[in-house]
Design a protein that fits this description.
Layout: H1 3-24, H2 34-51, H3 63-87
Helix pairs in contact: 1-2, 1-3, 2-3
Length: 89
């Protein structure tokens, strides 16, 4: 597996962790489980960055959508930098 494959896999795993954490909020008591506590430790530091400047719209929190978009942009930036570094070798 190439470095691009490894980086892509890591970003995909983190994206799925965010989706799982978001889905748990839709179920009553979903955030009280041990799995949710584990996901919160991994995902909440990243999501809190966006929650600090994007207020919820009523009952809807759009900050995870913006966080996922930013993660996609970060992933593309990492790939661009890797292409610059590895392409020069």
């Amino acid at each position: 597996m190439s470095i691009f494959g490894i980086v892509s896999t890591l970003f995909t795993i983190y994206r799925f962790l965010i989706f799982g954490y978001i889905l748990l909020s839709w179920f009553p008591g979903g955030r009280d489980s041990p799995i949710a506590a584990f996901l919160a430790r991994l995902v909440e530091p990243y999501l809190s960055i966006f929650r600090s400047f994007i207020p919820p719209l009523g009952m809807i929190d759009i900050s995870p959508i913006v966080a996922l978009l930013a993660l996609w942009l970060i992933e593309n930036g990492v790939f661009f930098i890797l292409q610059l570094i590895l392409g020069a070798l």
